[in-house]
Amino acid sequence: MPTAIQANNLSKAYQLGQIGTGTISRDLERWIARMRGKEDPYLKIGETNDRTSKSTSGIVWSLKDIDFSIQQGDAVGIIGRNGAGKSTLLKLLSRVTAPTTGNIKIKGRIASLLEVGTGFHPELSGRENIYLNGAILGMRKREIASKFDQIVDFAGVERYVDTPVKRYSSGMYVRLAFAVAAHLESEILIVDEVLAVGDAEFQKKCLGKMGEVSQGEGRTVLFVSHNMASVKQLCKRGIVLDKGSIGFNGPVEGAINFYKEQGIVKEDKNLMQLIKVKHAALTINHILINNSTDATLEIGIDDSRLDIEIEGYTSENLQFNIEIKVYTLEGVLVSFYSPAHMDAEILSIPAGKFTFKDNLHLPANLVNGEYYLNIELSYPNIEKYLGIDGVNMIKHGRTTASGKYLTYNEIGFFLINRNGN
User: Fold this and answer.
1) Residue 216, CA distances (Å) to 32, 134, 212, 220 in order
2) Which of 38 and 415 is assigned the larger pLDDT?
3) So what's the architecture of 271-409 in CATH?
4) Contact between 394 and 413 (Cβ < 8 Å)
5) Residue 398: pLDDT above 50?
6) Are 11 and 66 in contact (CB under 8 A)?
7) What pLDDT score does 416 carry?
8) Are 340 and 292 in contact (CB under 8 A)?
9) Strands 188-191 and 110-113, how do they pair?
10) For residues 191 and 213, what is the distance between their CA atoms, to the nearest angstrom?
């Protein structure tokens, strides 16, 4: 297959604080260097894009010396932590901004969906924006008209297609923007994390369309997402960015495993670091989940409960309920468990030293994905005593489907695969 995208020594630097070098002479030096095809003399000293440390030079390299090639028809997942450089890379590929050094060779037209509202004029109607985007891609009016009904039907905005898009909800905006990008005749489709705005049904519909675009039509797809299940479903290849550099470039399973290990190493905390005591009478000495003090837990495919042990001291009698909440990485609450909401008795801790033990059953209705687990002790609807926020959990093991064994070692913090689908 021919090469659709080729990036060579691609770098992008941003200056923090005030824009400009501060003097006319420096601006002239930069202009002369640029005219002579040389590097900017004031961008030779820069820093890695590390959000955990403060810049000292005032210049940050969002991307540094990136090299990769993507073949026509490939579906490639670009993954990495927040601030890794994913969005910057997509902006360079979409020609929204220019690289500081290096070059990109692209064969074909690009349709990009980088953020809500990208490429739409708010004062124009949905119909007018469809034709505008097609014209930008170089399509003729009759070519756009032949795709119009498919776009409107996919987006589900037929009733509002002649209304200015500034009156659309964010979900309608994204649905129409994706439909336009996916149906118009571009050779390369670039999609950032904007699909998180849509509901679950539309996200599933988008993944199906992107798979059709890549496999059925031979178009190239670049997909950025924090949802590893979606990346694995759509892509065969993954690129992992880490502080502006490529950490991994290869099969999507390897990319996901690399991202998983990267996250575990960098967020290896003790459970005590996650505790937030919210009651003056309460002191916590130690906490165990499944007999471990680690904030990252590994759970087998058949495990369905958590054994929790909390040891501490309270200067007064406390009555409380325990709650377990499961969130997606985007912060959406997907499951909530509380004995008090099922008419169970409120638990009690007498004044003095105490050891509290309980078994919490994990929700049985979660689909494949990545999750955070939060645990809380409180008097229902009155007062919070203790919060354990952001426990990282990894579900892995073996299960069967259609008589075949499937191995699961997924990226994430809490993964369930009950049916092997």
Assistant:
1) 48, 21, 5, 11
2) 38
3) Distorted Sandwich (2.70)
4) yes
5) no
6) yes
7) 34
8) no
9) parallel
10) 13
Least confident of 84-93, 194-203, 252-261, 390-399: 390-399
Residue 156 has which token pair? Answer: 């589900």
Q: How confident is the model at residue 251 (pLDDT cuts 50, 70, 90)?
A: very high
Cβ proximity of 70 and 31 under 8 Å: no
The number of angstroms, rounded, from the C-alpha of 156 to the middle of its chain's C-alpha atoms is 25
Under the banding of pLDDT at 50, 70 and 90, the label for residue 50 is: low
Determine the Cα–Cα distance for residues 365 and 316; give it in Å rounded to an integer: 38
Tens-place pLDDT, residues 117-170:
667 888 999 999 999 888 887 788 888 899 999 999 988 889 999 999 889 887
Report angle CA 41, 87, 409 to the nearest 5 degrees.
Answer: 125
Report the pLDDT averaged over residues 270-276. 59
CA dist 214 and 191 (Å) reads 13
Residues of the chain with CATH 2.70.50.60: 271-409
pLDDT at 89: 92
Q: Where exactly does CATH 3.40.50.300 map onto the chain?
A: 3-11+69-265
Q: What is the homologous superfamily of the domain 3-11+69-265 according to CATH? A: P-loop containing nucleotide triphosphate hydrolases (3.40.50.300)
Per-residue model confidence as pLDDT tens digits over 161-180 = 999 988 988 788 888 888 88
| Dist. CA 281–CA 410, nearest whole Å | 41
Residues 6+ positions from 23 with CB-CB distance below 8 Å? none
The dihedral sign for the CA sequence 296, 297, 301, 305: negative
**Three-state DSSP string of the chain:** CCEEEEEEEEEEEEECCCCCCCCHHHHHHHHHHHHCCCCCHHHCCCEECCCCCCCCCCEEEEEEEEEEEEECCCEEEEEECCCCCHHHHHHHHCCCCCCCEEEEEECCCEEEECCCCCCCCCCCEHHHHHHHHHHHCCCCHHHHHHHHHHHHHHHCCHHHCCCEHHHCCHHHHHHHHHHHHHHCCCCEEEECHHHHHCCHHHHHHHHHHHHHHHHHCCCEEEEECCCHHHHHHHCCEEEEEECCEEEEEEEHHHHHHHHHHHHHHHCCCEHHHHEEECCCCEEEEEEEECCECECEEEEECCCCEEEEEEEEEECCCEEEEEEEEEEECCCCEEEEECHHHHCCCCEEECCEEEEEEEEEECCCCCCCCCEEEEEEEEECCCEEEEEEEEEEEEEEEEEEECCEEEEEECCCCCCCCCCCC
